Amino acid sequence: MPIPPDLRLTRAVERWQLRGLRQVAETRTSLILRASAASGDVALKLLTNDDADEQRGGDLMLHYDGIGAARVRGQGEGILLLDWLDGPSLGDLAREGRDGQATQLLAGVAAQLHRPRDHPAPDLPPLEHWLQPLLQTRPASWPQASQPDIAAAADLARQLLDSAPPPVPLHGDLHHDNILSDGETWRAIDPKGILGDSAFDLANAFRNPEGLERLSREPARIDGMARCFADRLALEIPRLLGWASVQAALSASWNRDSGRDPGDDLLLLPCLLDAWRRNARG
Question: 0.90 cut: is pTM over it?
Fold first, then answer.
């Protein structure tokens, strides 16, 4: 795959003495290249637009300092240089039938990411801002069968925000396919960067990994995941399940607003709300 000419790349090659650059992926906001450096193979993330999430994500990766996340080797001019992670991902483990193990490992990565650092966190937007697509949605604009669930999730988001503990830096997109193995440990990539309730950072795991949508709707899987996260991270099960419900509704809102099918999230949402109601009563 040919690499487009970019002066930033030329400077990066010179600055970090990179060799053998090759493009391996392209996303909506960036090009991902692999290269060799003195420290070993590295991933070079070249931003192709001024996406604020990507900029904050790079700052948050620096804040993590290689604890629970890929280590940053350099940053500048819309470029992030990271240790290359060969994988597999936790999503690969789950799709191989090792979903329980993947859940345990994901909880361990989250615990590392949430450890206090001795340096200040970057400036991050509040969780309430992140939730605006759901908080501002009109339930009546959704299919009739989904309207009660969307309304319940929006109300639940407001309740959880009102009762939130002191905010901490959040990855914001922590799920199975954003956690890769480096051969010895598991490390997160591609954070969004939010400031909010630590329980929210586990919410996206309930609707992942891709390809296991039916499994994600099974009550035993939902309950088991919530227990694992609660035990490992000292979080309340109802709060975890509440945020998981909110995340499913938020993802449905994002998908609908961008013209994608929100169907999987709308099928998952009532399952998560049922689990939240059961545990909130108990």
Answer: yes
Structural domains for the chain: 7-83 (3.30.200.20), 90-281 (3.90.1200.10)
Phi, psi of 245 (to 5 degrees): -65, -45
Average pLDDT along the chain, 282 residues, taken 10 residues at a time: 68 90 86 90 86 82 95 88 94 98 98 94 96 97 97 98 97 98 93 97 98 98 98 98 98 96 97 97 71
Active-site residue (options: 83, 149, 173, 197) = 173
Is 173 an active-site residue? yes
